[in-house]
Write a structure and sequence with these properties.
The complex is a heterodimer of chains A (262) and B (322). Chain A is mainly α. Chain A is 76% helix and 0% strand. Chain A is built from twelve helices and no strands. In chain A, helix 1 crosses helix 2, helix 7 runs parallel beside helix 12 and helix 11 packs across helix 12. Chain B is of the alpha/beta class and 322 residues long. Chain B folds into two domains: 173 residues, Rossmann fold (3-Layer(aba) Sandwich); 63 residues, Alpha-Beta Plaits (2-Layer Sandwich), CATH 3.30.70. In chain B, the strands form three sheets. Chain B has a six-stranded mixed beta sheet, with helices on both faces. The longest helix of chain B has 16 residues. The C terminus of chain B is likely disordered. Classes of the chains: A mainly alpha (262), B alpha/beta (322). Chain A: GO terms for molecular function: ABC-type transporter activity.
Chain lengths: 262, 322
């Protein structure tokens, strides 16, 4: 078997194992969906009137439109935290040691993880998106190409954050440490333009909020779905995704190739 | 490899591994002919698990030349992995999925066809008495069942060299005897088994050759009989209650070891019926009557204690040496 065919076959086997875990233990998956859905409802129905005044809009429906892109990216962040935790748990299990002593494609353990998590992210985005549509979100200014681009953007972000989350999971000795280490993936959306515009934040903080990974992705998604100005955010988002993917990939690979601790 | 039987299954020389300043393996040599059982015997912390981890490609040693099934471990670890099966000390099963799913996972990773995988999984589940539990999550299994599933998973790829790291530690006596049966069965199929254990009885029962590992060094190596010959042989012990009787017996007998405190005498003996009778005749003719006579034959315990005494293994639990 060629090494590519071996990689594909073994990664597929590992993916099936991970999806089987998700199917057997849906609680962890549903848990990570709860946060974005609760935040969506909270900010629309409880804070919605005050928030829409803050963005200079008219009523609650304007704020729904503003909020949903950020919530969708937050959904991806939350889902990857789940992966981080399950990677950390997995690495302490004997089964991973077994995989390391078998003649299989070495990185297939990681690739199966990443592909599984990206699929999970997409499913989560579809579910949270459906809730958003049900409470009145409409992509007012998106043609077929923009829909496709929006979808591609979400895919790239999911891919980038997943590799980072896998690395975070591997560097963590246990599940608790993993969920602490992955906290930035949960917290960064709160200090992005997800809930309020960056220019409403304190001046010294604005550069941080503007250039952190979530804001460019959120602004790009807004532009694609709602027709707002994208500007340099498109390139920034692409650069962040590429950078984080490369970083996460090599980091995870190096961690996996280390001798496991005793 | 013109004659695979002439190639040793495992040939390692100068195996070294240190974690920081702590030297775990201090240049040990291991040679295991194909089709035999080799047991690495030692107390907790002696370096047994580290040796298995290095030989099974899980971690890299600091030094040493290792060939497994004729393949150089450093140069071609994948070829080594294709030849071996490993059952570690801690169960290497996926607890979240069922026993059957664990078996099918192994079949997929060994690239068996779907039909072949199902057949192999079903056969091994049957052989290891796991058919009833096959559809239950592996985390619900008892210790013995997990160990059986673990070994069944190791056998999916039909490996010719199997590493078993303390396969019976933590098992109840019945499960332990079952495991011995399983290991004997593997050997009768021509599989080479590398076994670590802290139980002398286990090494004595199963192994063709035994190496006593102590403090990162091999203290002795050989067959169980060869090892037993390394230490002072058996003896007959006579115990007296009356100090006068003890003194007169001690004076009358030659080649004895005295213990004046407990009033016992040790006479060297291999414990055979013939030698025992001649000792008894001799005692009768010298008119010596001991209050208690016991025959002590050397066992691996004696070897073990003789070889590993003086070493300081901190927090050594009692059950480490039985």
């Amino acid at each position: 078997m060629s090494s590519l065919a071996l990689a594909v076959r073994d990664s597929h086997t590992m993916l099936r194992r991970n999806l089987l875990h998700v199917r057997r233990y849906p609680a962890l998956t549903l848990n990570v969906l709860l946060t974005p859905i609760v935040l969506l409802l909270l900010f629309v129905y409880i804070f919605g009137d005050a928030m829409s005044a803050g963005i200079g809009g008219g009523d609650r429906s304007d704020y729904i439109a503003y909020l949903v892109p950020g919530i969708l990216l937050m959904t991806i962040g939350g889902t990857t935290v789940g992966t981080s935790v399950s990677v950390a748990m997995d690495m302490t299990e004997g089964i991973i040691a077994r995989f390391r002593t078998m003649a299989i494609h070495r990185q297939s353990v990681l690739i199966g993880r990443v592909v599984g998590c990206v699929l999970q992210c997409l499913a989560s985005v579809v579910l949270v998106g459906a809730v958003a549509v049900a409470i009145g979100f409409r992509a007012t200014d998106a043609n077929a190409v923009e829909w496709l681009a929006a979808f591609g953007l979400l895919l790239l972000v999911a891919f980038a954050l997943t590799w980072i989350a896998v690395g975070m999971g591997m560097v963590s000795p246990n599940a608790e440490a993993a969920s602490n280490n992955a906290l930035p993936l949960i917290m960064l959306p709160f200090i992005s333009s997800a809930f309020v515009p960056v220019d409403s934040m304190p001046g010294w903080f604005q550069p941080i909020a503007e250039y952190q990974p979530f804001t460019p992705a959120i602004e790009t998604l807004r532009g694609l779905l709602l027709g707002s100005e994208i500007g340099h955010n498109g390139w920034l988002a692409a650069a962040w995704c590429l950078g984080l993917t490369v970083l996460g990939f090599f980091w995870s690979k190096a961690l996996f190739n280390r001798d496991p601790g005793n | 490899m013109t004659n695979p039987n002439r190639t040793p299954a495992i040939a390692a020389t100068g195996l070294r591994k240190a974690y920081g300043d702590k030297l775990v393996l201090d240049g040990i040599d291991i040679h295991v002919p194909t089709g035999t059982v080799y047991s690495l015997l030692g107390p907790n912390g002696a370096g047994k698990t580290t040796a298995v981890k290095i030989l099974s490609t899980l971690i890299t040693g600091d030094a040493g030349d290792i060939r497994i099934a004729g393949h150089d471990l450093a140069a071609d670890p994948q070829a080594v992995r294709a030849a071996i099966g490993v059952t570690g000390q801690f169960s290497a099963v996926d607890g979240l999925i069922t026993g059957e799913e664990n078996m099918l996972l192994m079949a997929d990773l060994h690239h068996l066809s779907k039909a072949e995988g199902r057949r192999t999984a079903a056969e091994l589940l049957e052989r290891f008495d796991l058919v009833e539990a096959a559809k239950k999550p592996a985390q619900s299994y008892s210790g013995g069942m997990k160990r059986r599933l673990d070994i069944a998973m190791t056998l999916v790829g039909n490996p010719r060299i199997i590493f078993l790291d303390e396969p019976t530690t933590g098992l109840d006596p019945r499960s332990r005897h079952n495991m011995w049966g399983i290991i004997r069965e593997l050997v009768s199929d021509g599989v080479t088994v590398f076994l670590t254990t802290q139980y002398l009885e286990e090494a004595d029962e199963l192994a063709d050759r035994i190496a006593v590992l102590n403090d990162g060094k091999i203290a002795a190596e050989g067959t169980a009989d060869e090892l037993k010959r390394l230490i002072p042989g058996g003896h007959v012990r006579l115990r007296f209650q009356d100090p006068d009787a003890y003194q007169s017996a001690a004076g009358a007998l030659r080649d004895i070891t005295r213990d004046d405190e407990s009033l016992t005498l040790q006479i060297p003996s291999d414990g055979s019926q013939r030698e025992l009778r001649s000792i008894l005749d001799w005692l009768d003719s010298a008119d010596i009557e001991a209050d208690e006579l016991t025959v002590h034959t050397p066992d691996l315990d004696d070897v073990f204690f003789a070889l590993t005494s003086g070493s300081t293994v901190p927090n050594q639990p009692k059950e480490a040496v039985r």
